[in-house]
Design goal:
Glutaredoxin, five-stranded mixed β-sheet, two-stranded antiparallel sheet, 7 strands, 41% helix, 23% strand, Thioredoxin-like_sf, transport, Thioredoxin, mitochondrial
């Protein structure tokens, strides 16, 4: 048990980056994570469809070049919203059923969801101004 706990602490530090020590990360970001990876259909239902907050859903793939450009941009802008909106990342290769259900025919596809309903959508890479406008519209600011 003690070995597993020590391993978890060690892995925690590697996940957070080189400035993390003893389970604490140094930085100015809030203590909560605004971005998460969807694990399965029930996780999507619980954390996205049933979310009381607006959700940005990023359908992406590991092999997708444009996804690697859009993802970090979107994550940064969502984090700047300080919890007003959350971001769910859905890998279409791992969750084909969700991609089919939400009619994702190309990646990256980004959905804006409120109260379980898709209220906005775009496909492809957008610049920061367009992404900020998308988030403001979703949040209602």
């Amino acid at each position: 048990m003690a070995q597993r706990l020590a391993l978890q602490r060690l892995l925690c530090c590697f996940r957070r980056g080189p400035l993390a020590f003893h389970g604490r990360a140094f930085g100015t970001s809030a203590g909560h994570r605004s971005t998460f990876n969807v694990q399965d259909g029930s996780d999507f239902q619980a954390r996205v469809v049933n979310s009381p907050k607006p959700i940005v859903v990023d359908f992406h793939a590991q092999w997708c070049g444009p996804c690697k450009i859009l993802g970090p941009r979107l994550e940064k802008l969502v984090a700047k919203q300080e919890g007003k909106v959350l971001m769910a990342k859905v890998d279409i290769d791992d969750h084909t059923d969700l991609a089919i259900e939400y009619e994702v025919s190309a990646v990256p596809t980004v959905l804006g969801m409120k109260n379980g309903d898709v209220v906005d959508k775009f496909v492809g890479v957008k610049d920061e101004d367009q992404l900020e406008a998308f988030l403001k519209k979703l949040i209602g600011a």
